[in-house]
Amino acid sequence: MSKARLEAFSDGIIAVAITLLALDLTVPVPGHGALLPQLGDHWPQFAAYAVSFFTIGIIWVNHHARVSQIAMVDRTLLFINLVLLLFVVLIPFATATMATYLTSGSEDSHIAMAVYAVVLEGMALSFSAMFEWSLHEGRTHVVVPIDQRRAQRLRTSIGALVYAGVFGVAFISAPLSLALAGVSAIYYIFAPVPRGTAGPEPEELESGSE
Amino acid sequence: MSKARLEAFSDGIIAVAITLLALDLTVPVPGHGALLPQLGDHWPQFAAYAVSFFTIGIIWVNHHARVSQIAMVDRTLLFINLVLLLFVVLIPFATATMATYLTSGSEDSHIAMAVYAVVLEGMALSFSAMFEWSLHEGRTHVVVPIDQRRAQRLRTSIGALVYAGVFGVAFISAPLSLALAGVSAIYYIFAPVPRGTAGPEPEELESGSE
Amino acid sequence: MSKARLEAFSDGIIAVAITLLALDLTVPVPGHGALLPQLGDHWPQFAAYAVSFFTIGIIWVNHHARVSQIAMVDRTLLFINLVLLLFVVLIPFATATMATYLTSGSEDSHIAMAVYAVVLEGMALSFSAMFEWSLHEGRTHVVVPIDQRRAQRLRTSIGALVYAGVFGVAFISAPLSLALAGVSAIYYIFAPVPRGTAGPEPEELESGSE
Amino acid sequence: MSKARLEAFSDGIIAVAITLLALDLTVPVPGHGALLPQLGDHWPQFAAYAVSFFTIGIIWVNHHARVSQIAMVDRTLLFINLVLLLFVVLIPFATATMATYLTSGSEDSHIAMAVYAVVLEGMALSFSAMFEWSLHEGRTHVVVPIDQRRAQRLRTSIGALVYAGVFGVAFISAPLSLALAGVSAIYYIFAPVPRGTAGPEPEELESGSE
Questions:
Q1: pLDDT at A193
Q2: What pLDDT, on the 0 to 100 scale, is given for residue C112?
Q3: Which chain C residues in 140-199 lie under 8 Å from chain D, judged by CB atoms?
Q4: Percent over 90 (pLDDT), chain B
Q5: B89 touches chain C (CB under 8 A)
Q6: Alpha helices in chain A (DSSP H)
Q7: Contacts of residue A206 in chain B, CB cutoff 8 Å?
Q8: ipTM field
């Protein structure tokens, strides 16, 4: 039951955070020119909204897959989960900051995009911490054999590696960095996952029974 | 279980989105004349709020009916569902933009209403994509016979057709277009649905057992 | 299942609406005098927040009690429930408007309080509509005998009567009207309810089993 | 069922309140200097966000533990729970006020931090009221022996004592007071809890079965 409530609470926070993304979209104020070009000028807001929406969507899928394999909830896991959610809830703020400066053409565009990447990195590292926590005996339904841990740890670290890349590219070009984050999110939704790993499992997702 | 969590996550997002509609209603600032005429001048906000509220309400009913017939969840469905929710979460922004320009009397009123229609169209097309996805064997509890697919595809496309109409009328008169969207939402709540189709089914809705 | 999802959706909307009330509380901007007197000047916001919080809390309790007795969900009930939620979601806006003008000392204070009462009245009348809907055979688990309908209809109308009173008093004194709404909400939480009626039932509330 | 809905409703409100914390984070407006130093100047917002996030996280854990031991729901408990949630929903406002004045260096920094402490104190006292309510026979699954009540009452009062300390330190130094609140939240997550008390129980948290 505790686990069910952990899932429900996390789901609630993730659902609210993904919806608050839309509050970052500003309605053009009348009297500042025609509406359509104004909306066009806001393209960074819309692009940032879409990328963050799919990113949080992926977090939800991954959170679901990870927690479904956990067999017990202790205070360390609660803490790791809270830190993970703390970064998820920061995403709307980081998205708004990034979108505001994305096309500023100055050093600030790099900084704003880097801040965005740092928030996503914090989220990814929390997932890695959750994986490390789950390696102890009795904490998951299926124990990961020691000789497979290295491979799984690598898989779990992909998110952290991707966002490190997003961080690095931010200092070359903020829009390119955003595109990289967006492509990664879409790719991750469709990425094939080998059976029997700690990652999201297709056979589990395909079971529609309750 | 996966399907139950998909429903719960979607319900959460839809519930937050419908509630955020009210954030678009602006409180008149004291010192700008009497309150009652000011509230009267805000009628586009209230009309837009009501139309969007019932529209999202219908989306929730339809989402429920559609997902209840699905037998498995795969990554393509997760993606389609995320795209659907992306448009749902855009509705408060589109509503605020539309309400702001509804009575501007300029070209912008047409553009703002058209933007609103595009968001609803994106949502309706996502529903159509979900229907096409569900045609493959084993994805729904009850398979749709091939000779009935054409009729069902038409039914599923009604929303997309209505919002195409709303889009078209937007360029004639924005308030008329809003009225059309409102009438459609109310109509859809009460529309009789033939039994045995993929649409929302009365007999299912009437079963109160859990 | 349909009923369970109706409850979950309604609960979600009510939970978000009650939380959005806090967005109406404005943080004093530095440079406009000492903080404590500024917060003191905001007392209408805090009073309005508390009254609306308990009012929505009561709505949640009553909604729960009403729906728990319903045996089937049809499209008319879905529509009535959406109208009820439409008014619930308007409460944060009505609260903010009322709090802004509560102490303006002008005609606007009466208007703002009356608008607040109208929103609560709309919510109460939706509850009455839900009661009338439930009188048809087969729509509730326990049928209300015809000779008890009059008494129950009266009970169900108490909310509508109270808010009519709040509306009337609004034109005498807005703060007095707010106090009446607050006292009613607190009273209603503790009001004894005769067993076997359509109202919230103590024996049901007291059962802690899931 | 009533208890399950009480939990779900409380969870929903707590999840929304914790997410609204992020709305207090303001995006620096372009044209006011470089982005990075501006974000650095906003450190009180980030520190306040983190402390309040973990504080609400702890409230959720404690609420879960407390309610799990309750055997019945009556109107008094509903009222106490609403008062508790009223204070939880105030936390984003109190956090924003506190963060705005934290480094103002004036008397207002003490006042703002004290307001924050008062809100947390109100929440902690609501928990104590819930404990006192639960002492009557039949209200919890496991009755607390009379000779253990004193010890348990003390344990339950720790939160109220801590926030009284936070209140007192607020008048010495607001940042120090915030640090105390933060350390307390983190400590409470990991605090060992003696078995068999009314507090959150490790063995219960460790059971991952649904």
A1: 53
A2: 96
A3: 189-190
A4: 55
A5: no
A6: 2-20, 35-41, 43-68, 75-101, 107-134, 146-170, 174-190, 202-206
A7: 2, 72-74
A8: 0.86
What is the number of other CB atoms lying within 10 angstroms of the CB of residue D30? Answer: 14
Query: Contact A206/B72, CB-based, under 8 Å?
Result: yes
Q: Is C3 on the interface with B (CB under 8 A)?
A: yes
**Is residue B209 predicted with pLDDT exceeding 70?**
no
Averaged confidence pLDDT in chain C = 86
State both tokens at C103: 């102490």
What angle (nearest 5°) sits at the alpha carbon of residue D203, between those of residues D199 and D208? 120
State which amino acid sits at residue D53: F
Which residues of chain A have a pLDDT value below 70? 1, 192-210
Smallest CA–CA distance, residue D1 to chain A, in Å, is 14
Q: Which of A10, A93, A101, A111 to mutate to test the interface with D (most CBs of D within 10 A)?
A: A93
- Mind giving me the DSSP string for chain C? -HHHHHHHHHHHHHHHHHHHGGGGSPPPPTTSS-HHHHHHHTHHHHHHHHHHHHHHHHHHHHHHHHHHTB----HHHHHHHHHHHHHHHHHHHHHHHHHHHTTS-SHHHHHHHHHHHHHHHHHHHHHHHHHHHHTSTTSBSSPPPHHHHHHHHHHHHHHHHHHHHHHHHHTT-HHHHHHHHHHHHHHHHH----TTSSS--HHHHH----
Check D64 against A97: CB less than 8 A apart. no
Test B207 with C5 for CB contact under 8 angstroms: no
**Mean pLDDT value across chain A:** 86
* pTM score: 0.89
pLDDT for position C198: 39
Q: What tens digit of pLDDT does each residue of C117-159 get?
A: 999 999 999 999 998 998 887 888 877 788 888 888 888 888 8
Predicted confidence at residue D192, as pLDDT, reads: 57
Asked if residue D53 lies in contact with residue A129, where contact means CB atoms within 8 angstroms, the answer is no
Mean predicted confidence (pLDDT) in C69-90: 92
Residue that has been written with the tokens 């496991």 in this structure? D142
**D86 chain-C contacts, CB cut-off 8 A:** 50, 53-54
Residue C96 token pair:
């903010």
Q: Is B50 in Cβ contact with C79 (below 8 Å)?
A: no
pLDDT of D114 = 97
CA distance A141 to A161: 27
**Touching subunits for chain A (3+ Cβ pairs under 8 A):** B, D
